[in-house]
C-alpha cells in the first residue's frame, strides 16, 4: 500500500494572524485561500513539498457540531489544548531563533529529549501547539 499524508487540519480564529504566522514566520507557501460565508480556509505547506499541506480552517464550521461542542472547542483553543502539529527540521535552534524573532509565543526552548530528539514548542495565534523536532545527530 502506498499512502502519504496529504493534508492535516488546524483551526484558526483569525485567518490573517494564522496566515502571517504560517507564511511570514514559518516561511510556508500559501497553496489556497478560500472564503465562504464569512469564513476562510487557508492551505499552506513547506516549500519544495507540494504534496504536504496544512489546512487552516474555521473551527466548528461543520454543521453537525452542536452549540455545546462549539463552546468546548472555543474554550480548548483558548487554553491551547485543542490541536497540535509536529514539524521536523535539521536545525531546531535556527528555527527557534526565527520564530522567537517573529514574536511567536514560546512554550519550550530547544532541549534534548530523552527519547532521541532535540525540540522546541510554540503556540500559533489560535493557540495550537507547534512542536519542532530535530533528530539527534542531524
Automatic annotation (TrEMBL):
Name the domain of life this protein comes from: Bacteria
Identify one Pfam family in the record: Glyoxalase
All copies of the VOC domain together span 4-135
Gene3D superfamilies, alphabetized: 2,3-Dihydroxybiphenyl 1,2-Dioxygenase, domain 1
| Name by which UniProt lists this protein | VOC family protein
**What species is this protein from?**
Streptomyces levis
Amino acid at each position: 500500500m502506498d499512502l502519504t499524508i496529504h493534508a492535516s487540519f488546524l483551526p484558526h480564529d483569525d485567518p490573517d494572524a494564522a496566515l502571517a504566522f504560517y507564511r511570514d514566520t514559518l516561511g510556508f507557501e500559501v497553496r489556497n485561500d478560500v472564503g465562504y460565508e464569512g469564513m476562510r480556509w487557508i492551505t499552506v505547506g513547506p516549500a519544495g513539498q507540494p504534496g504536504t499541506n496544512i489546512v487552516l480552517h474555521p473551527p466548528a464550521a461543520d454543521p453537525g457540531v452542536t452549540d455545546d461542542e462549539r463552546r468546548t472547542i472555543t474554550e480548548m483553543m483558548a487554553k491551547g489544548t485543542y490541536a497540535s502539529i509536529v514539524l521536523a527540521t535539521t536545525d531546531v535552534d535556527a528555527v527557534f531563533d526565527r520564530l522567537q524573532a517573529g514574536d511567536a509565543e514560546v512554550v519550550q526552548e530547544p532541549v534534548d529529549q530523552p527519547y532521541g530528539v532535540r525540540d522546541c514548542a510554540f503556540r500559533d495565534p489560535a493557540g495550537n501547539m507547534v512542536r519542532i523536532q530535530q533528530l539527534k545527530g542531524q
